[in-house]
Amino acid sequence: MNADLESQIHRLIAFGRYLSWADLLNRVFEEEMSKEANGSDTYILNDHNWRWYGLMCYWFSSLYVVVEAWDELGFSDPLIDRLLSHPKQLKSLLRRYRNVIFHYQHTLLDPRFIELLGYGDLSIYWVEALHNEFMRFFSDYLASLMVTDSQRDELREEIESTLHWYPYRESPHIASLERTISKGRAALAKYPGDTSQARRELEQILTAAEITLEEGRRNWAILRAQFLRIAGIQ
């Protein structure tokens, strides 16, 4: 690896550090949102609401740090650029939201708490879409730096060992299933003459997994399009 490419990769990993933290908060937020709070227990319900709201505040705010890195590095992407230039000035509102979260405020009623959220579903879907497109862009950009699959695997391992995270362009569950299928197919390819029952059973399992993988990708594509559509991009 030449020095220029290595320097570029290290700079990208520094960018990925902030994206990984935003992604961590997003996953913890979604985990909290998926919990079913007991509506008959006021304390449990209020605790749940306070937790998801706090996690959302920090997720949104950490994502703006990624926006700052994006601007400083001079990246460009058609979808991300359109999201960041939204006519409702959502990028600016996200910056103000970050400021009121990460800088101490003397009052509980600072208007910056509600400026962004005042757009309702639009703001939520815009942030979600922006987050997803950052992940997609970064994954594709990293892959474009390498020529061979082995180089891409090496780069992924380097990022995962450094950040304990990787920017999968789709759901991490989809990426995990894809790797499992790839390993299974590679194992079968080593023994082309094997006609055992165990091989046939493994073939059936892999075929079923491939169907699940394609279904997962279709569902992810539909969800991604929904985020972009409600955010006003598609």
Task: Present the secondary structure layout.
Layout: H1 3-33, H2 42-73, H3 78-84, H4 90-102, H5 112-115, H6 121-145, H7 149-163, H8 172-189, H9 197-230
Helix pairs in contact: 1-2, 1-6, 2-4, 3-6, 6-9, 8-9
What would you note in describing this structure?
The chain has 234 residues and is mostly helical. The chain has one domain (3-169). Helices cover 76% and strands 0% of the residues. It has 9 helices and no strands. The chain has helices at 3-33, 42-73, 78-84, 90-102, 112-115, 121-145, 149-163, 172-189, 197-230. Helix 1 runs antiparallel to helix 6 (121-145).
Order of helices and strands: HHHHHHHHH
Number of domains: 1
Beta percentage is under 5%
* Mean pLDDT figure: 90
Based on DSSP secondary structure assignment, what is the total number of beta strands?
0
Report the total helices: 9
